[in-house]
Amino acid sequence: MQKHPHFFWEDLFKIGRGETGVIEVLKQNVLFKTLTRRELRYLSHFVYERTYQPDEAIFKQGDRGLGMYVIARGLITISTESPHGDNLVTTLGAGSFFGEVALVDQENLRTATAVATERTVLVGFFKPDLTEILQRKPAMGVKILYQLSSVLARRLLETTEKITLITRARKMAQIHEDAS
Fold first, then answer.
1. Mind listing the domains of the chain with CATH numbers?
2. Distances in Å between the alpha carbon of 87 and those of 8, 14, 61, 113, 114?
3. Measured by CB atoms within 10 angstroms of the end CB, which terminus of the chain is less buried, N or C?
4. φ and ψ at residue 32, rounded to 5 degrees
């Protein structure tokens, strides 16, 4: 049996070797939707499935990021800790994914904390595996990277729009306060 490069995950993750359920989860994810059935089967050899219990942390803000996760079943709460006390929180359910920045970020530091809010099954995909796919099957790797860049661009645009709205609201509040 070939030793997987992520030996330190062996006690936490089981390799998703061709499991139909894992392939279906991957097929429904936007990052992998352009892959053929054969490519999805190949990818299933690089992903890991793990079950998290309620209130169990997947990762914490500031941790070193190794990869992304797709929610097969369950709920995850994503939160940020701000020195100003204005924490942001969102909940993600089955079919959602998070942590994808770790696939391309050089520093690999998590910008938020992810915690299971109920019994949750995640499929993990890690940066060294993406690198291996790019080396062994470049066309497949490019498909994944193209989808990833599209997602990151869309999320950046949404974030910029939200920051603009918040800035405008604060500016308007300041104008009203100054006028009083």
1. 8-179 (2.60.120.10)
2. 32, 33, 12, 11, 13
3. N
4. -115, 5
- Provide the angle, in degrees to the nearest 10, between the axes of the packed helices 138-179 and 127-136: 140
The three-state secondary structure class of 52 is strand
Which candidate, 124, 113, 156, 167, places its Cα nearest to that of 31? 124
> Which residues, 6+ apart, have CB-to-CB distance to 99 below 8 Å?
58, 59, 65, 67, 68, 69, 110, 114
Highest mean pLDDT: which range of 13-17, 19-23, 146-150: 146-150
Distance separating the N- and C-terminal Cα atoms of the chain: 74
Q: Cβ neighbours of residue 58 under 8 Å, at least 6 residues apart?
A: 52, 69, 76, 99, 114, 115, 116, 122
Which range among 67-71, 81-85, 111-115 shows the weakest confidence by mean pLDDT? 81-85
Q: How far apart are CA 83 and CA 5, in angstroms?
A: 37
Rounded Cα–Cα distance for residues 109 and 102 (Å): 7
Among residues 69, 50, 52, the alpha carbon closest in space to that of 119 is found at 52
**Could you identify the residue written with the tokens 């291996």?**
132
Band of the pLDDT at 20, cuts 50, 70, 90? low
Q: How confident is the model at residue 159, as a pLDDT? A: 79
The rounded mean pLDDT for the chain is: 85
